[in-house]
Request: fold
Amino acid sequence: MNNKNLKIDFWDVGQGDASVVHLPDSSLIVIDTGPLGSPLYEWFAREPRYVRNFLITHNDSDHIGCLASILELSKKGMLSYEKIGIVSDRGFDHPTVKKLWSQLRQYEPKMTPLGQGQTIWEDESLGLSLQVVHPSPFKTIRFKAANQKSAILVLYHDGVPKVVFPGDAKFRSIKKKFADSRIDYLVGPHHGRPEDRSPQKYFDKFKANVDSTSVDNLLISVGTDNSHGHPDRDYLQIMAKKPCRVSCTQLTPQCDEAIASSGVPVFDGTQALGLEPIQSGTPCRGCFQLVWDSTKNQLVPHISHLKKHDEGIQMLKSPMCVAKDVKG
Ligand SMILES: [Zn+2]
Ligand SMILES: [Zn+2]
Reply:
């Protein structure tokens, strides 16, 4: 790896979120780990690594589930790390939280709260910084659902949002923060089905929020076999028509039932990047990588990977990532 640069791997962890930011000094920032059994674990077990920050958007198992097993590697000398950023989204009386946190409480000395106003990392010479813009302490108290309290992390270049990692936050929360700017890459939110997409009586408001937010690329992390109907076709279509380039880690039956159940990848980005494969689901683009180009001041994707994904989806019955009236 070019150790004077920044690189982001967006992992295919099935139904869940996980991204790894490789900083110019070769240290790592991990944004969500994916669920228990996430391929990120195997990657961490491969060789010793140094993580500046683990940042967990919220305490749902598809985002934090693999954290305990990864941290376990620190006891074998395979991992060293500085801090674990956590949002206090629910009490210990919640069964999911209690189960996850019975293994995590031993790491409490390294934990810090994650919330609005924090700068996690910055590099003045590159003009890049990673900041937390949500939730405020007020929102943490006011909001009921853990998803609503999801941390929203942003990689900025000179004040311009390059990548927004909103976990499972509502789209409305993203719109509020970025009403006047153009987002280069947006992850999800909520695996392509923002929670404020329903109920139906508020759909027009949701659509207006999505329509009025400028996004150039949408990265969805979703599992083929998810039982929640993720991602949402309407959301992906509104985005694709912007136009915005939409792609998903895995294929779901909504795009093509036969190919989704075949297990044959549309494009295997995970293998192309040499990252750990996932044992379940059918990759549509699999993992995805962006590399910072400091001469052009932009994040650059693997164009050949995007091309192969775009060719592959031509075979699908009704791909959600292609705007209907464009495909004809
Ligand atoms: Zn969640
Ligand atoms: Zn989630």
Notes: The mean pLDDT is 95. Residues 60, 62-63, 168, 190-191 surround zinc ion (ligand 2) (CB under 6 Å). Residues 7-327 form a domain with the Metallo-beta-lactamase; Chain A fold (CATH 3.60.15.10). Residues 200 and 222 are 22 Å apart (CA to CA).
